[in-house]
From TrEMBL:
Pfam families: p450. It comes from the Eukaryota. Signal peptide: none annotated. Its cofactor is heme. The keyword Ion transport does not apply. Belongs to the cytochrome P450 family. GO terms for molecular function: heme binding; iron ion binding; monooxygenase activity; oxidoreductase activity, acting on paired donors, with incorporation or reduction of molecular oxygen. PROSITE patterns: CYTOCHROME_P450. Heme binds at C465. This is Cytochrome P450. It comes from Clonostachys solani. Keywords: Heme, Iron, Metal-binding, Monooxygenase, Oxidoreductase.
Length: 544
């Protein structure tokens, strides 16, 4: 029999041994694995964690890629992080090997404190499963190039509302109107709700939830609960991330349900009889269409596209959340650059007045604006709202260009760096929209275009953003109407420097700036108001 002191000594020794084992295992896991892609030397216990800047890490990744190569391997504590810096590898992994590179990494806070019982329904968290394919099939048809026609009047109406609001604004209010516009368009198209009817409280709650949500998702803001599980047990009064997560969860829970409710109401509505048209003009938002199973060639009628009410609520809510901040950031960058480059703005204005001399542009005219399209493409290249894209998780061991990438590695594409590569783009740091008129991918003469895309701002492969065409149309419509009526003038010196003039975070956009929207001609005030009325009448024709 052991005496009490011996039992205590043995227990202490066992616990110490167990702790030493866990610690050693942890430290060994922070060392670069064999044949892993090269990167800066690691520190025992931390890997490269202490060397990765929290602000705009993509700039440091880009610098490292010049030293260690296009496939950069880092250790974030015990986890593996691989960052791709060339389009061919992005294509090879995200498109050709999509079966293994299309899941999203697990993260404790979103899963256990935000999505909770709905973790298997939110697009941000969907893994590479048959449900992801069903989700994307329903959405791709409705907001892809072919399904977008019905949304055009909504995009025109929210753009006309923005122009009307900018008639009576101060430079400090401008960005707020752009923000409301970025929410109004997808809110109407996806959920059938009009922002005017939901009011300021809803809009405040929406943007507060987005802000907290993006902060929670941004590495370094919340404590590293994925790496140090003990931190999960800290009580809420010492862990503000728990309060923030609750705010976001409640927003999703309440508002996603309200989106479903309005979609259901629209589903029950009778057709609207519009004089001179024998076809139904009743408006059905994207969620209503899915509810009615009205998808390409009746594919939905056999039940394959059926979604449960909770699934549909999270489909619409997740889609809306993904649409707003990204579009707002792109629109702000575009306004910022047009104000800073008056020559480019003049050329874009001339293009709009050429195709629509007497009235604010709309309808088919909007698909005939190559220079404005080039300005937007150039903004996507220079100021991608997600400079590192969204992370993918590798679901098996893989060999890439001779390097071994272990299962469970998080893989990112450094979009910012890829789109500023001097081998591909002339004067890559300059705002030169004309490059997209000279070459469909904006590439310089002689650059290899194999497996390259015009932009990586919307990602690549199986998880490519399904809202690309929707965002593009919304921005063209709004900027064309604004440039037709207004001149955008700086109200203060503008900072275009990515390190000082742009905020960091999961969605990157310009720091607040001030510009004036000056009417090009006092007579245009009437035109703006008339355009607003025309667009409102068009909405009424859809029963809205
Ligand atoms: C300029 C505006 C936008 C930008 C820059 C943008 C960018 C992105 C990026 C980088 C991704 C990740 C892609 C990947 O993993 O490869 C993404 C995903 C997504 N985007 Fe967008 N997006 C924009 C607008 C929109 C809009 C308007 C919608 C909806 C109407 C939308 C819906 C989504 C959805 C649902 C996903 C998740 C797809 C998935 O995980 O399978 N986005 N977006």
């Amino acid at each position: 029999m052991l005496s009490t002191p011996n039992i205590i000594a043995t227990s202490v020794a066992c616990v110490s041994l167990a702790l030493a084992f866990v610690l050693t295992r942890f430290c060994l896991a922070t060392i670069r694995p064999k044949d892993y892609p090269p990167g800066p030397p690691t520190v025992l216990g931390l890997g490269n964690l202490s060397q990765i800047p929290l602000k705009q890490p993509f700039i440091q990744f880009s610098k490292w890629s010049k030293i260690y190569g296009d496939i950069l391997g880092l250790k974030v504590g015990p986890s593996n992080l691989v960052i791709l810096h060339n389009p061919q590898t992005v294509h090879q992994l995200f498109s050709k090997r999509a079966a293994h590179y299309s899941g999203r990494p697990y993260s404790y806070i979103p899963n256990e404190h935000v999505f909770c019982q709905h973790a298997d329904k939110h697009i941000l968290n969907l893994q590479n499963t048959p449900y992801l394919r069903k989700w994307r099939a329903a959405v791709a048809y409705l907001i892809g190039t072919s399904g977008l026609k019905q949304v055009v009047p909504m995009q025109e109406a929210t753009a006309a509302t923005l122009a009307k609001q900018l008639l009576n604004t101060t430079p400090s209010e401008t960005l707020d109107y752009l923000k409301q516009w970025a929410l109004a368009t997808p809110l109407l198209a996806i959920t059938g709700q009009r922002l005017e009817e939901r009011g300021k409280d809803f809009s405040n709650r929406f943007f507060q939830a987005q802000k907290l949500w993006l902060e929670l998702l941004e590495p370094g803001n919340a404590p590293p609960v994925d790496m140090v599980p003990m931190l999960r047990w800290i009580p809420e009064r010492f862990a503000s991330w728990k309060t923030d997560a609750r705010y976001v969860r409640d927003y999703m829970f309440d508002e996603y349900a309200s989106y479903l409710e309005s979609a259901q109401k629209l589903s029950g509505k009778a057709d609207v009889a519009t004089p001179g048209q024998n076809k139904s003009t009743r408006f059905r938002c994207l969620m209503t269409k899915i509810l009615e199973n009205e998808v390409e060639d009746g594919r939905g009628k056999d039940g394959k596209l059926g979604f449960s009410p909770d699934q549909l609520a999270y489909l619409g809510g997740g889609l809306l959340d993904a649409a707003v901040d990204t579009t707002w950031a792109s629109m702000m960058s575009l306004v910022l650059y047009l104000a800073a480059y008056p020559n480019v703005q003049e050329k874009a204005h001339e293009e709009v007045t050429r195709i629509s001399p007497g009235q604010s542009p709309g309808g088919d005219n909007l698909s005939n604006l190559p220079y404005i399209g080039a300005c937007i493409a150039e903004i996507f290249r220079l100021c991608p709202p997600a400079p590192n894209g969204l992370p993918r998780i590798l679901d098996r061991d893989d060999i890439v260009d001779g390097y071994r990438i272990p299962k469970g590695t998080t893989v990112l594409a450094n979009v910012w760096s890829i789109q500023r590569n001097p081998d591909d783009y002339d004067q890559p740091d300059e705002f030169i929209p004309g490059r997209y008129l000279n070459h469909p991918l904006g590439l310089k003469k002689g650059a290899d275009d194999t497996d390259k895309r015009a932009t990586y701002t919307f990602g690549a492969g199986r998880r490519l953003c399904p809202g690309e065409a929707f965002a593009q149309n919304s921005i063209v419509t709004a900027i064309a109407k604004l440039l037709w009526s207004f001149k955008i003038e700086p109200a203060e010196p503008l900072d275009l420097n990515i390190e000082t003039g742009f905020h960091t975070g999961l969605v990157m956009g310009p720091e607040p700036f001030k510009v004036n929207f000056v009417l090009r001609d006092p007579k245009r005030r009437e035109d703006v108001l008339r355009d607003y009325d025309v667009c409102q009448t068009a909405l009424a024709g859809f029963g809205l």
